[in-house]
Specification:
The chain is of the alpha+beta class. The chain is built from 5 helices and 13 strands. The two termini are 19 Å apart.
């Protein structure tokens, strides 16, 4: 079994997870807590770390049709000849940042200053990056970095 990446329709991550789990397919959609303003004041809500993307662990040849035709799935992320696999190491690194079901976040504005070097990362066993903090990363850019590092 290998990890793959699915693109979902907007806001359908939870539906995809629920439907695929009902078909005994392992899913993973990391979540973050985000503060949003509402009439009664700010509240904390669960949001996907990578909006419109869900990881699945499966034998793709066996479950391709089930996955591709699940309600809420826009498609399986492909590159070149077939579905993109995601290394176990990438999934493990994301999971290691979880606490109580959510990705641990720090207020980067307090912890990091612009230009400060951050720990060395090895995202997929092939590339080594030495990131330098510039600013907090918006949702779209988190997805871009995910795709850039697995393709």
């Amino acid at each position: 079994m290998k990890w793959y990446l699915l693109k979902t329709k907007p806001g359908e991550e939870q539906r995809v997870e629920t439907n695929l789990k009902a078909s005994n397919i392992i899913c993973y959609s990391p979540k973050i807590k985000k503060m949003v303003n509402c009439v009664s004041g700010p509240i904390s809500v669960a949001k996907p770390l990578f909006p419109q993307f869900v990881f699945v662990r499966t034998v793709m040849d066996k479950n391709y049709q089930t996955i591709n035709y699940t309600r809420g799935v826009a498609g399986i992320v492909n590159y070149g000849r077939g579905p993109v696999t995601v290394s176990d190491e990438v999934i493990e690194r994301i999971r290691n940042r979880e606490s109580d079901g959510f990705i641990k976040q720090t207020d980067n504005r307090l912890q990091y200053k612009k230009g400060r070097r951050i720990e060395r990362l090895n995202l997929d066993g092939r590339k080594t990056l030495t990131p330098i903090f510039d600013r907090s990363t918006p949702e779209r850019e988190r997805v871009f970095y995910l795709l850039k590092n697995i393709l």
